[in-house]
Amino acid sequence: MTAELISGTEISKAILAEIKQEVDEMREKTGTVPGLVTILVGENPASVSYVTLKVKTALNLGFKEIQDNQPADISEQDLLALIDKYNNDPEIHGILVQLPLPDHVDDKKVLDAIDPDKDVDAFHPVNVGRLMIGGDVVRFLPCTPAGIQELIVRSGTETSGAEVVVVGRSNIVGKPIAMMMAQKGVGANSTVTIVHTRTKDLAAHCQRADILIVAAGVPNLVKPEWIKPGSTVIDVGVNRIGTNEKTGKAILRGDVDFDKAKEIAGKITPVPGGVGPMTICMLMRNTLRSAQKSI
Ligand code: NAP
Known about the structure:
Elements: E1 4-5, H1 8-30, E2 35-41, H2 45-60, E3 64-70, H3 76-87, E4 94-97, H4 107-113, H5 125-133, H6 143-154, E5 163-167, H7 174-182, E6 191-195, H8 202-207, E7 211-214, E8 232-235, E9 239-243, E10 250-253, H9 258-261, E11 267-268, H10 276-294
Parallel strand pairs: 1-11, 2-3, 2-4, 5-6, 5-7, 7-8, 8-11
Antiparallel strand pairs: 9-10
The protein binds NADP nicotinamide-adenine-dinucleotide phosphate.
The site of NADP nicotinamide-adenine-dinucleotide phosphate (NAP) has 25 residues, from helix 10.
């Protein structure tokens, strides 16, 4: 059997088209468009490339987009003042501070200074708390977990009553996606297990997963024999395993042995082209929802 491929590239395109349509309608009805500011401190090449992609996507959707580049030696106080300025700007509905920040700046202090109602990355403790409570109080879902849940739903995978196993317990992926899948509601109502480096029998847990979500950052961690036949496998891992000599580009692999796993799973995400493209897409959707709420 060869699994059905869950293409984040295709699904994210469809979602971006839906967002664009909503932005067009908003502009027509209210004269307003979603406003997103991306604050980049310094010139870390990976950060520059992420921010460039975010800015390009926002502009393509018709957002008001401010790319606010700051020097690497900006003081923490000046950065906090900048965030305060955007917190009070009614045309800005989403504030994104690209991480990592320079060592002399306290990341936590900076992220906590963002107005929780403009925190489109959903890293603020208030939004983490809202996620835990679930239901109507949730304002924003963190982008990568939201993208994972969207892939599960749009691939037609049944989540209600499903055994979900999440490999990894980080604050940005493992813990939030586990909580989201356990909540009451559409695309959730699952029975969730979180596993990590101290788990005694990783294979046994994975083997009973109807939905296996892997976010460990270890190439080929999940062996084909760990996969339940017919299950849905979401591979979040992005691991650079080398460089393509011809193109000079990084060779990327997930946390799952994809070539063998696809012969056992029912549905599976590739790396690249699976979860990756969904993250920016969900950031855009959070900004749109924030603008809709403020109007
Ligand atoms: P992280 O903070 O390093 O957390 C990794 C988690 O995996 C930890 O909880 C760790 O357990 C667990 N783990 C590591 N090795 C393990 C093993 N051998 N057995 C069982 N558990 C193991 O990583 P992250 O930020 O969550 O990211 C995970 C992966 O997803 C990375 O490859 C990252 O690049 C990728 N990622 C992709 C996207 C995207 O596509 N948009 C976004 C975010 C992350 P302990 O807690 O016990 O150490």
